[in-house]
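Supplementary Methods, section 5.1.

A reviewer requested that the exact input to the structure prediction be made available. We therefore reproduce it here, unchanged from the version used in the analyses.
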Amino acid sequence: MQKLSFTAHVGFYEEVKRRVYGYFEERGLSPHADWRMYLKTALILLWLAASYVILVFATSSLIMAIITAVAVAQGFAWVGFNIMHDGNHGSYSKNKYVNRIMGFMLNLIGGSHWFWKHKHNVLHHTYTNITELDEDIQVDHILRMSPEQPRKPWHRMQHLYAFPAYCFMSLLWVTIGDFRKFFSGRIGDYQLPKLSASETTLFFLTKVFYFGYMLVLPMFFHPVLYVLAFFIFVHFVLGFTLALTFQLAHVIEGNTFPKPNLAPPSIDNEWAVHEVETTANFAPKNKLAYWLLGGLNFQIEHHLFPRICHIHYPDISKIVKKACEDFGIKYVSYPTVRAAIAAHYRFLRSLGKKDILVPQEVVVRA
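The structure derived from this sequence is encoded token-by-token as follows.
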């Protein structure tokens, strides 16, 4: 994979950084976690542990099992959105060891922090919405998520089958996806660094631990088929939650999907402006969505400042939006979750019907 450069410079990134970090300095605040994040972490881990214990050891009916399975799935999602995400970005704490511990939570819920850092931190955060570089919009021809991807006949129906397809995301991720990355040493065309012996050992040990508590241990208390069925069900709920949250931030009306220059490989834009233009916020006034999603509904702020803890996103979003206005940069923000889902649905439908997507004007609201 050839590295792309961002050739333009308009001074936006320097200015928005000056304003945002000035906000912390003026108030004597740390950009990392505080008591709110510590309490949130404890509540989420308690929720997940209690849900798991009830599902495996205390369910007395099918309805109760379904409810607690959903609770486990959402507990996994909240660990991902809130704890491991900040940890792996280095935004949870100024202490790198605390960040490692929090980032390692991904391994405990079935993933791999090492592969995730390369796929998410390196590829997605650097080359957002660039086809063949941002792996988060590559779905092996099943879905067309960018106008730069070839349109297949079945894409005419993707707005109908996309949402059920999202359910498979985490199931494929923790089984096929991570192991394919390990044995191929690649994420798409991106060559992964060679894993150390300790990272290799950790990868397999944590996979054994995960499948042990999610499959093997429950089989001592419940029929094998029931355990397999609920394992798949948990991942269907989890996969849908994770996939939809991502799509509402990037694969939606109003976002751009830049096509790089070939010689030299480059994007005619400043990196920070590129990040704003390829990203969207949603439901910025919905405190419940913000709390549950780890601030990922403030995706623009996250992409510009991934090393700032998400508890600060609502406050710095006002600063970022004003900077965008001052520089004439479109700041896409959908007022509600429902509005964002509708815009994502329309975008998928338009991609399925057109080879060339005509940019659509979006009403931007805070």
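The two ends are 38 Å apart (CA to CA). These observations are discussed further in the main text.
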